[in-house]
Amino acid sequence: MRTLAGRKLGQALFAVLVCFSLSACSGSLFTETIRWKGGTFYNESDGLIRQPDWPMSLELNPDGTGFGVGLPQGLQESPDNICINPTSEERYDGAVEWRRISDYRFEIAFADSRYTLTSGPGKFLANWTEVRIYTCHWGYEYWAMYDSP
Hints:
mainly beta
């Protein structure tokens, strides 16, 4: 006959295993390397769509490291806001670190930049086929990159 303590231990062990199998508990958002390419710039209020003048891409590894090409340099306006204020006209190429913020957001950090990227337009499911970097300028402006094998 199982004791109450044994049953509680079994339930706790099961909860831990379930928790680690879910990305929300393990802290990682991606379980394999994921890549995006693009850099198209949108201003939805003005109907502006500008194709990238330079290549933009981002690759993230599950361990919190990655590599970016042509990334805008900037800082997030405030911790609870997803828009960035660009700090340079020059683009960044090199190593990045990233961390999960929520199921729909992650933060990247490199050189003197740190900001949040979001999943594309999905309202109830972050499918990560698109990531966006929003500016703090008027007009619902953002750069978009799309998943790339």
